Hints:
Blueprint: E1 4-6, H1 7-36, E2 42-47, H2 74-81, E3 86-92, H3 99-109, E4 114-119, H4 128-136, E5 141-146, H5 159-170, E6 174-177, H6 182-194, E7 199-202, H7 214-227, E8 233-237, E9 247-249, H8 252-266, E10 271-273, H9 286-298, H10 302-317
Parallel strand pairs: 2-3, 3-4, 4-5, 5-6, 6-7, 7-8, 8-10
Antiparallel strand pairs: 1-9
Amino acid sequence: MGHKISRRQFLGTTAMAGAALYGNLNHGLAADTQSTTGTMPIIDTHIHLYDPFRQQGVPWPSRENKILYQTSLPDQYLPIARPLGIVGAIEIECSSWLEDNQWVLDVAAKNDIMVGTVGHLVPGTPDFRTNLDRFGKNPLFRGIRYGLGRQAGMEFDRPEFVADLKALADADLVLDTANPSLSLLADVVRVSDMLPHLRVVIDHLPQMVPPTEPAERASYDAIMKKFRNRPQIYVKVSEVLRRINGSIPTNLEFYRPRLDEILDVFGIDRVLYGSDWPNANQWLPVPAGFKIVQEYFMGTGRQSAEKFFWRNSVKCYKWVSRTADQPQLT
């Protein structure tokens, strides 16, 4: 099954020589990128920005999480991203505090690698429309993230919730979802039935293990079938790595069946690259996960790989380039 790294080994290595580990992985993968992707630009559609050491602190991550409780800003991201060929990134908000939407926008404005942010606003609340107008005026604000699946679809019975999602769609902004579950996927179908012009992004689908219980598996298969013909629904091939019995496989063949299934359902025009930095560090550093999807999608041909690594992100998020090396569709 290939080389595996245990969680204990990784945590120990990180504690003693995290910077060296990142440097070595980035250096090796940079060479691989040059030989296999050439000058192909890459847009990372899923990173998080936060600073737990600012005066007000952060709601997430917790101080107890030694891996994540660190400054995670563009200055820390760039040395990881550049050697992999990443020229632009979209931040996904990980704070529920309203003013952190503005804090991230201010950080992004000062760092050209940031081409967008997906904020945190709750549809169906009295101030949703006001805040959507406020933040939506900034071209870096590309949508919101909302955790579907947590209320068993009950929020769809509230007209104000559906109306706010319609306002999001009318503003040509995106709805990102949180961590996938069977109920979340069912709600994605529900919202796409109600608002077929709303672009929806399913985050981290590779991390979800399809259910094995017969009734749940039947529901899962039915949902996947519905996703096939809904061009407004995208999926992030993020959180690809899995922990199996305390170890993390690092070879493509372990992950290929899951990636094949996702590509078969969504097609090459609706898959997006996302590193999930720095959250990915709870598995392995970003280059380890990147190498797997790089090998997989380059195996589909360069044209398909370009769709995965950047073209689809432009269609989905409609971000605008800020530097000459950030591509745009022609």
